[in-house]
Amino acid sequence: MFPRPLTPLAASNGAEPLGRALRRAALGRARAGLGGPPLLLPSMLMFAVIVASSGLLLMIERGILAEMKPLPLHPPSRDGTAWRGTIPESGGLTVGVGDSDLQVRQDVRNRTLRAVCGQPGMPRDPWDLPVGQRRTLLRHILVSDRYRFLYCYVPKVACSNWKRVLKVLAGVLDSVDVRLKMDHRSDLVFLADLRPEEIRYRLQHYFKFLFVRDPLERLLSAYRNKFGEIREYQQRYGAEIVKRYRAGAGPSPAGDDVTFPEFLRYLVDEDPERMNEHWMPVYHLCQPCAVRYDFVGSYERLEADANQVLEWVRAPPHIRFPTRQAWYRPASPESLHYHLCSAPRALLQDVLPKYILDFSLFAYPLPNITREACHQ
């Protein structure tokens, strides 16, 4: 009754397997040299077409939710607390009958993840990863033993609010509305804090989820926040970016006036595996091929998806996901369109391969930066 996995795309004539090519492309630059013409690899373009076609067919047929692992049993004692929702009799996840958008979106992502992660050369387990990649992954997965779930946090995708929720669930904070400066380490448990056998048990038995966002919108949000507001980032990264990419910058720039194209040039020259977590690709942060996540939520419908997760993990009904503060102004599609159209097109073509797996795996469309679109 569940949709069958897509048939793996085999490499022909001894060519490099698609999985390895995609992973390599995400690490490499899209052009041969600094003076060479921008190039988007054919395999990436073909894959984008496959994903787009699959998504279109799914939207037409309104596909059903792909198979997910059942929720594990919770500890029997809950101090008599009333729980939101009920445990499905079959033990599986349920989605409201009327929420066809959520069903279709999850089906698109599940099919895409199976298709890409099933390719030769793609990791199937965290212990398949090189040590550095595994360390990054385990440092980004938060643990709730009381509610038996794992959350891979992605900076600039509401991770501060999720950490606030975890602290409330753990009894450290009284309310998600407490407006204290967020300590991103204390009173939180990460998979990296545990022994290998404890990690394996939780990966096998706990409910696992993450939240994603349009890759370029996430980059713009990080750029605006870190280089427009945070002095530490201006001094540590901004000053170096200005010295490296701005002619006549001088020996000691302040780093508080980094332009978006300068930030993109910096990203082109960075190894994705060594990037700061605020602009590291989600693929490298959360390794969705090595970890089989039960749910991938969207920033675009954050509150609904987050409260659906809280229902699935059977959080107390008085705990809700924090609402966005009135003063907060996220990076809008219009602002993103302006910044992308103001950047050199060749530069964008160099940046996109770094994030191609984020676009592909999570079914985000590539940006339309044609001259016609930018002049509208």
TrEMBL record:
Provide this UniProt record's keywords sorted from A to Z.
Carbohydrate metabolism, Glycoprotein, Golgi apparatus, Membrane, Signal-anchor, Transferase, Transmembrane, Transmembrane helix
Looking at the record's lineage, which domain of life comes first? Eukaryota
Compartments in which it is found: Golgi apparatus membrane
UniProt keyword Ion transport, yes or no: no
Q: Where is the signal peptide?
A: none
**Pfam families attached to this UniProt entry:** Sulfotransfer_2
A single Gene Ontology CC annotation of this entry is: Golgi membrane
Q: What is its EC number?
A: 2.8.2.-
Membrane topology summary: Single-pass type II membrane protein
Output the GO biological process annotations, alphabetical, semicolon-separated. Answer: carbohydrate biosynthetic process; dermatan sulfate proteoglycan metabolic process
Q: What class of enzyme is it?
A: transferase
- Molecular function as annotated in GO: sulfotransferase activity
Indicate the family of this protein. Belongs to the sulfotransferase 2 family.
Q: What is this protein called?
A: Carbohydrate sulfotransferase
Annotated organism of origin: Orycteropus afer afer
